[in-house]
Specification:
Layout (H helix, E strand, L loop, with lengths): L2 H14 L12 H4 L10 H13 L7 E6 L2 E8 L2 H12 L6 E8 L3 H21 L1 H22 L2 H5 L5 H26 L3 H21 L1 H16 L7 E4 L2 E8 L3 E5 L5 E5 H6 L2 E3 L5 E11 L4 H13 L11 E7 L3 E11 L5 H19 L49 H12 L14
Parallel strand pairs: 2-3
Antiparallel strand pairs: 1-2, 4-5, 4-8, 5-6, 6-7, 9-11, 10-11
Length: about 450
């Protein structure tokens, strides 16, 4: 045999040899390891386990259990759907159960359905009997705090020292009463070791407060504004005020709105929130009030003389005050007039504003007519030019003397007394209204 052929055969023989106990290179050691299969729990063991548990629960004692190859079938009656679901859940959690079949029926007997509830009531009764001494103590504490709250609520003389309006005092009294009763409830619950209830009550109160705050925003705003108005006292009953361009005399201040009687006799209700957030002009708080008017005179007249005559005319008005004295100023120059502005003061507690102003205008008009001071209508000057000649400048028109009306020395004097018509209507509104007036009577302090 040739040497080359011999060497080839020898190598092939070595490759086919394998060491004793050595597995072939292409064999997986894990595939050769035997798989252990745990024997399932016997059906009898599963049935005894489930039946033993059901026998200890009153709601499950009427349930029958049958087990076949790990399949559990439940039969019999249960008090309701909750007991059915609990029984099925317990069976499914039992080891060795493959599937649970529901063949249960809900009993129609009222006694069977009520038995779980009666059992709970019985347990609750035993628990209450054990805690009866603590319950008596907690109730006694709550009764003491309620008595204390009512005692503090009735002490009106104590709250009068606050020197606030009746609405403010009533609010403080109610807050004190609620705070004392709330403290008693919290202490009573702490005695009963019901801290979880305290937290739940506080949380519910917070949520309820937020919800009510949004729902009753306008009402709460008007209520609080009424308290501020009655405390700050920016106006009194009978004051003539202007709020947001609306003028009237104050008749009532209620918990929600301010009632005005307008100059034309109508009743105007303005929400307190709008009153406190708007600009408020009180005409009555200062008894002195100034009136003014404008008179236009001819541009050709002596302004100093016109001012003197007008001032003397206003001084003839018995309602015009001498201190401060009436004044006349040159206000502006119009197209054909010079405008004089007259100022004068009156005591509006004694005289009516509109009446005094009206008489002052009349007296100035009569004085100007008598002095020949013209109050002309608009005047236009026309310049004429001749064609082919120099432009004519025209001749200025001479001032036209004022027409003097016949003097009436026996003219009756005007009534300048204050008009009390609105005041009477305001008092009628106060008598007829059933709402609590937060303002003190006119002429008294808070």
């Amino acid at each position: 045999m040739p040497p080359k052929t011999f060497l080839t055969a020898l190598c092939a023989g070595f490759m086919c040899l394998q060491a004793p106990g050595q597995a072939p290179p292409d064999t997986d050691e894990g595939q050769r390891r035997p798989v252990e299969v745990k024997a399932p729990a016997p059906d009898q063991t599963i049935r005894e386990r489930i039946a033993g548990i059901f026998s200890e629960v009153e709601e499950f004692q009427q349930i029958g259990v049958r087990v076949q190859s790990g399949v559990v079938t439940l039969t019999g009656e249960v008090p309701g759907p909750r007991a059915r679901n609990e029984a099925l859940a317990l069976v499914r959690r039992t080891e060795g159960v493959v599937i649970a079949l529901d063949r249960l029926e809900e009993t129609a007997e009222v006694a069977a359905q009520l038995s779980p509830a009666m059992a709970k009531i019985h347990d609750l009764g035993r628990s209450l009997s054990a805690k009866l001494p603590m319950i008596v103590i907690a109730v006694s504490v709550l009764v003491i705090f309620v008595f204390l709250a009512n005692f503090l609520h009735r002490r009106e003389r104590w709250y009068n020292r606050l020197r606030v309006s009746s609405l403010g005092k009533n609010l403080v009294r109610r807050l004190v009463r609620v705070a004392v009763i709330t403290l008693g409830v919290v202490i009573a619950l702490e005695i009963l070791a019901a801290t979880a209830v305290v937290g739940a009550l506080l949380g519910a109160a917070g949520l309820a407060g937020i919800a009510l705050g949004f729902a009753l925003k306008n009402i709460i705003e008007n209520y609080l504004s009424g308290i501020l108005l009655s405390t700050r006292n920016p106006f009194d009953i009978g004051d003539l005020i202007e709020i947001g361009g609306r003028t009237g005399k104050v008749a009532l201040l209620t918990a929600r709105d301010t009632v005005l009687v307008t100059p034309d006799g109508n009743h105007l209700r303005i929400p307190n929130g709008m009153v406190i957030n708007s600009e408020l002009l009180n005409f009555t708080r200062n008894p002195l009030r100034r009136f003014e008017f404008i008179v236009g005179i001819s541009v050709d007249l002596d302004l100093n003389e016109a001012r003197r005559v007008g001032r003397l005319a206003m001084e003839q008005n018995p309602a015009v005050l001498r201190d401060p004295e009436p004044t006349v100023f040159v206000d502006s120059i119009g197209e054909s007039t010079v405008n004089l502005k007259f100022f004068a003061w009156l005591d509006q507690t004694r005289h009516d504003f509109l009446k005094v102003r009206s008489q002052a205008i009349r007296l100035v008009k009569e004085a100007y007519d008598e002095a020949g001071i013209e109050m002309p209508e608009p005047i236009y000057r026309v310049l004429l030019r001749q064609s082919g000649g120099d432009a004519g400048t025209g001749t200025p028109r001479a001032p036209t003397p004022g027409r003097k009306p016949p003097k009436n020395d026996e003219a009756p004097g005007e009534d300048l007394a204050a008009d009390l018509t609105i005041d009477r209507q305001m008092r009628d509104e106060q008598r007829q209204s059933k709402e609590e007036n937060l303002l003190p009577p006119a002429g008294t302090g808070p």
